[in-house]
Design a protein that fits this description.
Helix content: 25-40%
Largest sheet: 5 strands, mixed
Strand content: 15-25%
Structural class: alpha+beta
Shape: globular
Number of strands: 18
Length: 470
């Protein structure tokens, strides 16, 4: 049997591939038919990017075959997500004049969006998402719903999220190598947010921090608008590397961390010791629970520092009425919410996709580790114009948020925008009935982004990991 009325989502993580098959119920919840997680061998994925396509394709095939054998469904197409340090976002202001009279109409909003969608990305990159922020009427009145308001000029700042073309193409190749047609591509950070957040949290202001193995994805919402997306090329693997430096065999590190590890050193029992097998029966390794917790705490504080830096770059750090929601495999560490709250002062909760799953699917798919995969299903079902089934294959084409019409007209390159010197203001012009849409100014560049990733690069280029002072 083919996919039928179900949708398949594949989350390619640095350590695992997660495949979920689900459908949408009449009340809008997601029903999970089946899910499978398969390991990715070392070197297959590095910090969210495919480095060995054979290893990744093999992991995809293993997970898909397991689901097919249990359900009888033949998986031929899927939606997938993307992450990695190549993801970046730029802010792009733009405006149009009212087409008729002094009333803003739907056609004006559409023209504003079309102008952004018609602009190709810089060389070597693709536009993954175009997210409009609040609209401004005549440079005075800010509104989330401009249609029907009175004014001559409609402006907005767009958050344009870009990804590396090579990384995107490799993802598509990995799916096609196992005869799966890529149906759509979504940002993992946004998918995680869709899975774990409530409407009230999106409205009040919230940051989702998805702690994976190789990356930590951050998305910030406020007034139900995605304000910022950031990727930190650090995840749970940096903790594993430090534990490994204590002589623990690699095959035991992950289970040691998840079964016995805690994120707060002072909460661990000082007289408790964990023994793991060594290369021989006489070479077993022993580590105290408090030392293990100290390793985890130190590296988690590094991740928190970089995540908070991303949240601050959004400009909404002090507007998070709903605090922070932690998800992903790294969020399952004991006391992680306590560490985050004590260190940042923000309200924190750990969540899976429970608010979006029907009750019977909670035990199967409520784990925070697979929240992103569930979010990919939600994004696919919420995509405008979708048939809500996986019967029809489409090219792997990133779609823009809140855009319902196809791009049309002459395209202008974002490369031209980057070369424009005046990046801070929108030029004023007098409205005229025959006036053509203005040329968008250059997206703002942030030197802080370069400094941020230079700091990370230095962090990862160290030849030796210094032992924590325990």
């Amino acid at each position: 049997m083919e996919n039928g009325g179900y949708i398949v989502a594949i989350d390619l993580g640095s350590n695992t591939v997660t495949v979920v098959v689900g459908s949408k119920t009449d009340d809008g919840k997601i029903k999970i038919l089946d899910q499978e997680i398969s390991a990715v061998q070392n070197g297959g994925m590095v910090r969210g990017e495919i480095k060995n396509i054979d290893l990744v394709s093999q992991s995809i095939k293993t997970a898909v075959n397991a689901i097919e054998s249990r359900t009888g469904i033949r998986i031929t197409e899927a939606y997938t997500g993307i992450s990695g340090q190549h993801i970046r976002s730029v802010k792009q202001p733009y405006y149009v004049f009212a087409s008729r009279g002094d009333e803003i109409r739907q056609e004006d909003v559409r023209q504003l969006h079309d102008s952004m969608r018609n602009v190709p990305a810089p060389d070597g990159e693709k536009i993954l998402q175009i997210i409009p922020q609040n609209y401004v009427i005549d440079d005075k009145e800010e509104t989330a719903n401009p249609v029907g308001t009175f004014g001559n000029k409609l402006a907005s700042t767009f958050n344009i999220i870009l990804g590396d073309t090579v990384a995107i193409n490799r993802l598509e190749m990995a799916l096609k190598r196992v005869n799966i047609a890529p149906m759509g591509l979504y940002l993992n950070a946004i998918a995680a947010g869709e899975a774990v957040l409530t409407p009230d949290e999106k409205e009040e202001g919230v940051a989702v921090i998805d702690i994976g193995a190789g990356t930590t994805d951050i998305v910030v919402y406020q007034n139900n608008i995605i304000r910022h997306v950031g990727i930190v090329p650090m995840g749970g693997n940096v903790i594993n590397k430090d534990i490994r430096s204590y002589g623990i065999l690699e095959k035991h590190v992950e289970s040691l961390k998840t079964r016995y590890g805690e994120a707060v050193r002072d909460a661990a029992q000082p007289d408790k010791y964990i023994t793991t097998p060594g290369l021989s029966a006489k070479a077993s390794k022993e580590i105290s629970a408090q030392n293990l917790a100290a390793i985890i705490e130190a590296r988690m504080l590094d991740i928190i520092d970089f995540a908070i830096e991303e949240i601050k770059k959004s400009g909404y750090h002090d507007k998070l009425g709903a605090g922070v929601v932690l998800t992903g495999g790294g969020a399952k560490l004991k006391h992680i919410d306590l560490l985050f709250k004590n260190y940042t002062g923000l309200d924190v909760r750990v969540a899976g996709a429970e608010s979006n799953l029907e009750e019977e699917s909670l035990n199967l798919a409520g784990d925070p580790a697979i929240a992103t995969a569930i979010g990919l299903l939600i994004r696919a079902y919420n995509e405008p114009g979708q048939s809500k089934t996986a019967n029809r294959a489409r090219p792997l084409t990133p779609r823009s948020v809140n855009d319902e019409t196809s791009p049309s007209g002459n395209k202008r390159s974002l490369n031209d925008f980057y070369q424009t010197q005046n990046t801070n203001t929108i030029q004023e012009e007098n409205p005229d009935e025959d006036q053509q849409p203005p040329t968008p100014p250059a997206p703002k560049t942030e030197n802080s982004v370069k400094r941020f990733f230079n700091k990370l690069r230095t962090y990862f280029e160290e030849d030796e990991i210094e032992d924590n002072e325990i």
